[in-house]
Amino acid sequence: LCYRKGKTPRRPALKKTNNVEKDPVGVYCRIRPLGAEDEECCVEMISSSTIQLHAPDGLKANRNGEYKETQYSFTKVFGINTGQMELFEDVARPLVEDLIQCKNGLLFTYGVTGSGKTYTMTGSPGEGGLLPRSLDMLFNSIGPFQAKRFVFKPDDKNGIDIQSQVDALLERQKRDSQQSVPKTPSSRQKADLEFADMITPEESRKSKNIDEDCSYSVFVSYVEIYNNYIYDLLEDAQFDSVRPKPPQSRILREDQNHNMYVAGCTEVEVKSTEEAFEVFWKGQKKRRIANTQLNRESSRSHSVFTVKLAQAPLDADGDYILQDKNQVNVSQLCLVDLAGSERTSRTRAEGSRLREAGNINQSLMTLRTCMEILRENQMCGTNKMVPYRDSKVTHLFKNYFDGEGKVKMIVCVNPKADDYEETLVMRFAEMTQEVEVARPVDRPIYHLAAGRRHRNQKLLCFLPALPPCELVDPTDDQTLPRLIEVLEQRHRIRQMMTEQVTHTGMVKFMLQQFDSQMSSKDTFVHDQQSKLNEKEKVILNQKTEIERLEKKSKTLEYKIDILQKTTEMYEQDKRSLQQELEGQEQMLQKELSERRRMEQRMQGVVTDTKLKWEKECERRVNAKQLEMQNKLWVKDEKLKQLKAIVTENSSGGSFPPEPPKKPERPSRERDHTMPQKRSASPTALPVSDFILKNHHNHSDHYCTSTPSTSSPYPSVASCISEWEQKFPIDSGSQSRLHGTPQNQNRTPAPGYSTNSVDRRRGQRWAPDTEAPTNDLDRNTVPPVRPTHRRSRSAGGEKWVDHKPASNLELDTVMQPIIPNAIKVSTPNEKALSKCHKYVLRHQELASDGEIETKLIKGDVFKTRGGGQAVQFTDIETLKQECPTAPRYNISLKYPGLIMLLRCSVSLQMYFGVLFMINKIEDSI
Ligand code: ADP
Ligand code: MG
């Protein structure tokens, strides 16, 4: 006996790369028709993939009509008129095709109790569900290519063993002998539902992609998961109806390929649809009995019907199955009828039933959680642990989601109003279709020529038929040689054909190699293409980046340009400013040197001038000293002369005798004695009070100590006395040459001079015309040039003639006549500002009864503050007898003499000074 172990297809370790192709979980929605008693329909199919839920009227009323109408989308929606066949075509048929192509599939129905899960999965008589239709299609496809019973043999580790046909035959014979009463369909009870009741022969489907060079075998298993326990529904244990034993629960295990399986689960090899359906029905019956006996709620359990397909290639001859377990491929399709998804509160469960219900709900909750986490992991790239182990259902189907396969879910919906609240769970279903499951890879290609089975069958036709080889007669010597001949013939033909086949196989093998090479090349090209696409994306990104950078660089260049231009402008400015600066510096230097030269020159000039002035000062001092000495000398000389005159007079001179009545005589005498007293000390004269302003001009004398104010407040008399005290020599007699501009023509007329009562003192005379004829004077007075005594400014100056209102109007010709003068009674600034000279007519009553008019003269200056100042420079005195006193007429006898005396002294002094000055000037 030769046992070779087959096992479940080794699944490639799921690479977590994006290259693995994935398909989303197909979620279909089936709306069952309303029951006879139901009236309100809450579900509307608005498109082939969308349904809309309408809140039932009762619910609307409860919530004030504010109920949102919700829409859900699915892979496909099947309306109430959808038949079982149509559903099968769309949903289950591809899964059966996959099963035959060695790909796993999982199909489950989901929904509340009564929504049509069982109807969809199992169906009713005449309306076979997905399960009988799938079995039918499978057997229709593999029917003629099925292996003999027991060639494929399930091990207890979810694998399939393979054994030779002879061993299988022997095992069959053994089993047959063990079963005392062989079960035949004819022996079945009529009460059981038969497959023939389910589908009509017209509805049979068959796969066209069946590999005929393989041998197939189908195994079915049926388990129920109730309260998170797994029960085998195909277990052979006899059910004791008297003392029902709780069925033995099964555990889940993982095989060497990490597939989950129910350990020790019965797997029945079935050879036809009828047989398979019979097995299913058996399990179904058992489930029903158990539920009734154990007081279970059948809607609370999940039932899992698994169709396992084992296939192995035929050998090169196409005669036998290849005895290589590694070549055995096993695929399975799980058809799951889930428990009702309604909430616990809806069921009137109590006690242990409530617990059970909770668990049922728990397993569905786990399914929901697993789907959510899977979806999150796939969509967000996270790696959260999916809690498959939390429930048996999810744990059992872990591989479908983790590994590869096709998963489909049919959401059954009952549109009746009662179920409205439950239909909200469709959000889960909608979400589930976002979960992706790896697409199963195509089955490996066997390196054997295809069509082996067909060829083998044809070969049998070519071979000569065997002659009858029954040996009846021992002496028959023809039968055996004939048989030998035929056999030899067959052997030859077979060898020949084998050679051909081998050759074809070689070619085929080469072709296959080429094919695999091509496919690897294809994958390589595909890889390269995807790489290229990635690179292109990168290039595109870089291009946009480059464009962005280019734009940026352009703007920067533009900015640089602007900055450069600005810099150039600034530099130009800087250069021009520097040039300007240099020019100015040069100018400054030039100016500096000029100034230095100037300073040097000025210093020279200053020293020169200084020296000159020093010399000049020295000279002037010397001159002044000389002048003073001269004055002294003149004074002495005059005194001598006077003494001589006085002595002459007293000794009977020619001079008329002095009138005795004259009261002023003593005063005059006193006046004359003053200079005499002073002559003893001529140095007492304040030389510094006289400044020779300009030696080219005639000698103007400025009195620096004269009060410079034009204020009328101090009394004129006091001022005059002060003046006279300061200049005792000239007081009362001094007559200035530059004084009142008296016109020569204005000199008194001869008639007036004799008759007039006026007496003038200090009146100026031109010596050449009016000097009193005095021989003595002529002899003693040094000769002075008369032209020097004439005022140059006479007539050219403007005067302010201040004549106070209190002044008496004197009717005399001896009045100062000032032409071109502004006459004022009180001095005002306006008048002063227009004039250079000022004269005040001051009248006083003298002690001798005469009216004395003093002409106080001064120069007008502009003060710094913008005002006017008068600097008094001269006093001229005019005296007249008061016209009201007739006794003064007597004194007219000698006025000329007195005048002469006084004048001669002053004139001589004056002329002496002038003489001296002229002399000095000449010497210079
Ligand atoms: P579940 O298994 O979900 O509890 P069932 O499949 O037992 O519900 O269905 C309950 C009842 O509704 C059954 O009598 C079934 O015949 C009927 N039914 C369900 N779906 C359909 C359908 N699409 N067309 C006709 N009858 C249906
Ligand atoms: Mg059901």
Short description:
The chain is an alpha+beta fold. The longest helix has 172 residues, at 479-650.
What does this structure look like?
The protein is an alpha+beta fold. 41% of the residues lie in helices and 16% in strands. It has 19 helices and 28 strands. Strands 3, 7, 8, 13, 14, 15, 18, 19, 20 and 21 form a 10-stranded mixed sheet that branches. Helix 2 (84-100) crosses helix 4, helix 4 (130-142) runs antiparallel to helix 7 and helix 13 packs across helix 19. The longest helix is centred in the middle third of the chain and has 172 residues, at 479-650. The protein is rod-shaped and about 245 Å long. It binds adenosine-5'-diphosphate and magnesium ion. Magnesium ion binds next to helix 3. GO terms for molecular function: ATP binding; ATP hydrolysis activity; microtubule binding; microtubule motor activity. Belongs to the TRAFAC class myosin-kinesin ATPase superfamily. Kinesin family. Residues 532-601 form a coiled coil.
What Rg is obtained from the alpha carbons, in whole angstroms? 81 Å
User: How many E strands?
Assistant: 28
Q: Spans with pLDDT under 50 lasting ≥5 residues?
A: 1-17, 184-190, 653-713, 729-794, 885-908
| Major pleated sheet | 10 strands, mixed
Category from helices, strands and their pairing: alpha+beta
The helix count comes to 19
Helicity, as a percent range: 40-55%
Strand content: 15-25%
Distinct small-molecule ligands in the complex: adenosine-5'-diphosphate, magnesium ion
C-alpha termini separation: 177 Å
Mean pLDDT: 76
In one word, what is the shape?
Answer: rod-shaped
